[in-house]
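Re: the 137-residue chain
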Amino acid sequence: MKHYRITLNNQTFDVEVLDDPRQPEVRVKVEGETFTVYAETVTERLSLPTVAGAETLAPAAPTPANAAGVVKAPLPGVIKSIAVRQGQHVNPNDELLVIEAMKAMNVIRATRPGTIGKILVAEGRQIAYGAPLLELA
């Protein structure tokens, strides 16, 4: 197990990687809460682990094991754009929305195929880490 301390938008989180980080699906513990994240290498220029958050770290929002179907914010920020609409079918890696944090645009992508249910945020809205963004059935 690896332990990391990450800072997003002036907020620090202790992260423990519970599984082999080379696997596409990895369990991580953030501040005592376990999440399943879907990591993929986006660029070789980063030396940081691909755990969760911005597109340069991992393309998808973590989903707690106890909240299947709800995509939650991997970092605090402002909703800049929403690329989907209710009832729309999405495939893995499709863009769902963009969160601006620390002047960086972070693309949140679908981790699996599904249909968009309720969209729980609006453009321009400030969101906190872990806030529900949308439902993916």
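The first strand starts at residue 2 and ends at 8.
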